[in-house]
Amino acid sequence: MKSQNSEKRLAGQVAVITGGGSGIGKETALVCAKQGASVVVNDLREEKAQEVVDAIKAMGGSAAAVAGSIAKLEIAEALIDAAKRQFGRLDILFNCAGLGIRVAVDEMTEKQWDLVVDVNLKGSFATIHYATPIFRAQKSGVIINVASEAGHGANQMTNYSAAKEGVVGLTRAVAFELAPYNVRCNAIRPRAFDTGLAAKAHYEKYLAFEERFGRVPWGQHPISHTIFPRAAEVAAVVAWLCTDDAQDVTGRNFLVGGGEIALMPEPVAMRSCFNPDGWTIESLPRIRKYLFGNLHNPAAGFPAIEHAEMVKGQD
Length: 315
Hints:
The chain has an eight-stranded mixed β-sheet with strand order 3-2-1-4-5-6-7-8, with helices on both faces. β7 and β8 (about 260-265) form a beta hairpin. The two termini are about 35 Å apart. The protein is globular, with a radius of gyration of 21 Å. It has a single domain (about 15-270, about 300-310), classed as Rossmann fold (3-Layer(aba) Sandwich). It has helices spanning about 25-35, 45-60, 75-85, 110-140, 160-180, 200-215, 230-240, 290, 305-310, and strands spanning about 15-20, 40-45, 65, 90-95, 140-145, 185-190, 255, 260-265. It is of the alpha/beta class and about 325 residues long.
């Protein structure tokens, strides 16, 4: 890694960015290029990936485009190979490609489930699968995966919520496995309402929902009302996490956007009860009050129909 005293913090490095043709992926490709990295831009749409490559080259940077869905392992392999073939190395992998389909759990088709899980979760695995031998051999590398606040629970998005929280589990497992090789892996839960998945109109619905029900439609965190969450801000954080400032940080996930960056908590036992004789259905009621405490249904008070309407279209 380059010293943080250098003019460009990612000088000489090579980054692969999935979903790089628009939104957070595009902004991250641009900021990485401005910081001196060569960038391989992936997008499902070839013309979008090429537009970003052209923009990087226009400002004097180096970039290449690889189109296709990273839910297909052959595309993921081609993407990683392009970095080695064209730029001679690989230092950063940013798994940003994502897809959301909103539909009630009992109406969701197998195809809708598989498509969302494949793009968001399998796609992250696929690129990591092919990048790992490179990172392991050179004993360095940074992986950033995109998770989501929807992983805390999102109305009519069981496929997306499951996939994105799966990304967090993947991140922890990869971080643990590759730590001996000086490879770090972190995840972000971004807020950006100037992207295709969450346009400005959806941001307004988000705020309207919070005003009406006193809480956000998913997750537990209040949204900033003073700073409109933009992709460029998220991109800056992603690039920064790839620098030596974050060299000791791995296996973690961060909330990013709207002027906020937060280190999210890792799973811990909230309360624990032990019985040396083991538990039976007869003995368990004795610990109910202690174990459950003040737990409550987080969706309590949400009228089902109005809830669905308030978040409808936030894909």
